[in-house]
Structures are given as structure tokens and as C-alpha cells.
Amino acid sequence: MEHPILLQPMAPEDWQAVRSIYLQGIATGNxxxxxxxxxxxxxxxxxLEACRIVARSGQEVAGWAALGPVSKxxxxxxxxxxxxxxxxxxxxxxxxxxxxxxxxxxxEAAGIWTLQAGIFPENNASIRVxxxxxxxxxxxxxxxxxxxxxxxxxxxMERRSEVAGx
Length: 166
Fold this sequence. Notes:
It is a single chain. A 7-stranded mixed sheet has the order 1-2-3-4-5-7-6. A hairpin with a 2-residue loop joins strand 2 and strand 3. It is an alpha+beta fold.
């Protein structure tokens, strides 16, 4: 029997589970250009303090979402990059959609007016989830980075808030 999904703020104690899920995403080859997961201190410094969420199924962390700043320049303070990762064993249960919808609500409450996501075109599930949450495709960044000897494109998606920054 599957446990109901509970969304909660991410705590430093969740890091090992969050890191493990991140590594599962990296292993797919279609989640990120990153080849390894950082230590907590590096990850913590690269993400906004607000808008860090874990999805729990029973006692297990089944997924997570967080925002990273796109720039340190004050004019871009309301623009953030989305990260949403779901544990391999929990995929296909709507957890990514739950996390992304909560992340949108929390980001708007924090004054974030634009969310952006860079997604490999092969990651159809992520593109569908983002589209269903109101993201639109802005364009394709062609041959943006070389990963394991292969040039990869990235679909750039964004969502402009209708309540924050208006």
C-alpha cells in the first residue's frame, strides 16, 4: 500500500535523502549536466533559503524541489531557477506535479515573479509537468553543453506569476 504524500519544508536533516534522489536523477542522463552531487554546504549556498520542499511517503523522502537564484544582481531578485527531483521508486505518482505546484505557491508568497527551468528535450515527463503548471517554452538552447562527449540541447521554460511582481 502506498502512503499518502505529505509536502514539508526541507530541513538539513533531509540532505542525505535529497542528495540520493539527486544522484538518481543524474544517473538517468536526462536531468542535469551535473555529474555528481555536492556536499550540503555547497548545495545550501546555491539555493534560496525559502522554497525548499520535500515530499514524504511515510517516513521516506520521495522527492524534493528547490529554487536557485539566476543572478546576484538585485534587479533579478524575483527570478529563480526551478529544481524538481523525484525518487526513482516514486516516479509516475504525480509527486513532481505536487512539488512544482507547491513550489509555485511558495515562490509567489516569497515575491518571486518569474520561474525558469532548463530541461533536456528528451525529458518529456518534466516538460509535461512544467507545461501543466503554467510554464511555457521560451526556446531551445541548442548545443548548450557537452555531456559525456555529446552536445546537448536544453528547452528553456518559464512561468510568469500573475500575483507576484505585478
